[in-house]
């Protein structure tokens, strides 16, 4: 994906004249910077936010280095999830990219797209692995492909404002699951937060240090596995206490947090989906998700 576009490229991609596009730029409707030579250059995330807000169709996405959009109707989410699962299983990165980015371009929110399509694809892949229909390498390759696509999606999101509330999160040591925490980052960024995932497998002490240094408004912990409950609870308690001491809201989520484990934990909120944390984050702090490029 190209990061800076010329007005001509964008005009071609959306089927309007270059003059109209330059006019929109000059009116401040489309974020723009100027090169040293005075030429207009449009950050791709600003252009995409403008097009999504206006409901403008991208007729030639390939001009922007993007895959073709495919509309996501509620009933189509399942079909897309199965299609994505198939693409990931055979390692067809281009098709997977087309499904995920295409849904985003056609108006799906990150939370919806990840909860209803990507996560579903992985849950199904997990079942197929359990039944011996999928090899471990296929699942792992699918995970790598998905991380690359999520990274690309991140670049398409609005740049958070410098004064936007800060959120950080990740998983603890012995929890290697990196997809969910990467998705939480994107879902919060889409609603205007300066969110950053620290990835998987962090020692509790380093996450505590991060909370003390960064002083985020919100910390999220994704818990996909907690085999050694006593060790998990000791780590978690250290993390929670540090969050409270620093005025940080603690949000937890993830497959391993069943009711009995949650009963042993203190937290601000438990969320079982990205849609859930987005609602929560918007209640805690309503931010303007407009691009600030
Ligand atoms: C990919 C994968 C792996 C990869 C992960 C790679 C990576 N970099 O992340 C790796 C290779 C690590 C792996 C290893 C193993 N895996 Co595995 N894995 C999966 C698989 C297919 C997908 C997991 C995933 O990322 N899903 C996508 C995410 C986004 O979905 P999610 O976790 O549900 O998250 C959503 C919500 O829960 C929520 N959420 C999650 N966290 C948070 C946090 C917050 C704050 C919020 C708001 C929301 C939220 O939002 C997300 C989006 O909707 C699952 C199948 C499944 N059902 O999930 C099996 C699965 C979890 N694995 C399983 C197994 C058995 C294993 C291994 C034991 C296999 C082995 N022998 O090697 C090891 C154990 C590793 C360990 N130490 O625990 C089993 C677990 C069974 C059980 N009883 O728990 C599953 C269920 C497969 C199966 N059907 O049998 N695995």
Write structural notes for this entry.
β7 (249-253), α11 (259-263) and β8 (269-271) form a beta-alpha-beta unit. α4 packs across α6 (110-130), α4 (76-89) crosses α7 and α9 packs parallel to α10 (229-245). The mean pLDDT is 91. The protein is an alpha/beta fold. The protein has helices spanning 7-14, 18-26, 44-54, 76-89, 93-105, 110-130, 136-156, 179-190, 204-214, 229-245, 259-263, 274-284, and strands at 4-5, 33-34, 40-43, 166-170, 194-197, 218-222, 249-253, 269-271. It has 12 helices and 8 strands. Helix content is 52%, strand content 10%. The strands form 2 sheets. It has a 5-stranded parallel β-sheet, with helices on both faces. Bound molecules: cobalamin.
Small molecules (ligands, ions, cofactors) in the structure: cobalamin
The chain-level structural class is: alpha/beta
Distance from first to last alpha carbon: 17 Å
How are helices and strands ordered from N to C?
EHHEEHHHHHEHEHEHEHEH
**Shape, principal axes of CA atoms:** globular
Strand order of the largest sheet: 5-4-6-7-8
For the residues shown, what is the average pLDDT? Answer: 91
* Fraction in beta strands: 5-15%
How do the strands and helices of this protein lay out in sequence?
Elements: E1 4-5, H1 7-14, H2 18-26, E2 33-34, E3 40-43, H3 44-54, H4 76-89, H5 93-105, H6 110-130, H7 136-156, E4 166-170, H8 179-190, E5 194-197, H9 204-214, E6 218-222, H10 229-245, E7 249-253, H11 259-263, E8 269-271, H12 274-284
Parallel strand pairs: 4-5, 4-6, 6-7, 7-8
Antiparallel strand pairs: 1-3, 2-3
Bound molecules: cobalamin.
